[in-house]
Design goal:
The protein is globular, with a radius of gyration of 18 Å. It is of the alpha+beta class. It is built from 7 helices and 3 strands. It starts with about 25 loop residues before the first helix and ends with a helix. The chain has a 3-stranded antiparallel beta sheet. Helix 1 runs antiparallel to helix 2 and helix 3 packs across helix 7.
């Protein structure tokens, strides 16, 4: 039986599909190297856990589970990151429908949301993510920062729109200019996908 649970997904567009905002070189490395490493490492850690169970071996659960959390979170966030972006000639740069209504109710305007989200992405300490999330219990949108992949995460909040601000996501194109990367990224947000995640 193949015990590998995690599989690297195909991108929903070609590697050059997000140019000029994100280059083909960045997308290729990001997907084939970085995302693939999270998939491979998560599967190796699962194999280690299964082997320990089968052979009744001692396992450093603190270390293994911390690493598993990091790699599974990295895989999950990247799977979502790819689909909330679309080529600039087919994506919608402004939200509409229920997600726009919810953004305006929570933040006052789309521009205010965009400002707050961009500041969250810019100020993530070290490597991490910014994300728009939905708290279904309180019917509320919130912005979160996730250092690395899995720190400062809000439990039970559905992630609607994540932005990867690890340097590998932009350095080849923008060097250390994270501000310019964030500004360009808004051009490729797939608001139809964000809306779909919000209403389901």
């Amino acid at each position: 039986m193949n015990k590998n649970l995690y599989i690297l997904p195909q991108l929903p567009y070609p590697y050059d599909g997000l140019e000029p905002c994100i280059s083909s070189e960045i997308m290729t490395l990001h997907h084939q190297k970085h995302h693939k490493s999270y998939v491979d490492n998560a599967n190796k850690l699962l194999e280690k856990i299964w082997e320990a169970r089968e052979k009744n071996l001692e396992l450093d659960f603190k270390s293994v589970l911390k690493s598993l959390s990091f790699n599974v979170a990295g895989h999950t966030l990247h799977c979502l990151f790819w689909v909330v972006m679309a080529p600039t000639n087919s994506g919608k740069n402004q939200p509409s429908g229920k997600i726009l209504e919810a953004i305006e109710n929570e933040f006052g305007s789309f521009n205010q949301f965009k400002k707050e989200f961009s500041q969250a992405a810019l100020s993530v300490e070290g490597s991490g993510w910014a994300a728009l999330t939905y708290d279904k219990e309180n019917d509320k949108l919130l912005i979160m920062q996730m250092e690395k992949h899995n720190l400062n995460y809000y439990p039970e909040h559905k992630i609607l729109l994540p932005l990867d601000v690890w340097e590998h996501a932009y350095y080849l194109d923008y060097k250390n200019d994270r501000v310019k990367y964030i500004e360009s990224w808004w051009e490729v947000v797939n608001w139809e996908e964000v809306e779909k995640r919000f209403i389901i």
